[in-house]
Amino acid sequence: MADSSKPSRKPRIRKTAPTVREKAQAAQSKSESAKPKKLRRLAKATTKPFRAAKIPSSPATRFLGRIGRALRKVLGWLVPRYFVNSWREVRLVAWPGRKETWRLTLAVVIFAIVFGAMVAGVDKVIDVLFRKLVLK
Predict the structure, then answer these.
(1) What per-residue confidence (pLDDT) applies to 7?
(2) Pair (44, 66) in one structural domain
(3) Do residues 86 and 105 share a domain?
């Protein structure tokens, strides 16, 4: 007869380490939720007095809005889209810390040394075979 008084043990579930993609997505969501974009913050700060004064839409404010849009368009032409998109991409990168950088650098150096030794060994074997068989 089985002893049913002992509680059955649950299998131990190990938490896996987050992947690089998961880290990047977490960093992106954290930065997006933490604060609004710089330009929006600046626009909000500059228009705050007008909103506080509750200035209605008038021809003058619409004219200033058109000037602002035209200025943004001209600046968009002056700054190539490549640089703008590159800067956006760099801001999305989840940069590794100092410890992880050293560890990855060490891994690359070790790999380069091992791979170089393998190539040198194969080169030496092929050189010996070529000298014995072809240049006999």
Answers:
(1) 65
(2) yes
(3) no
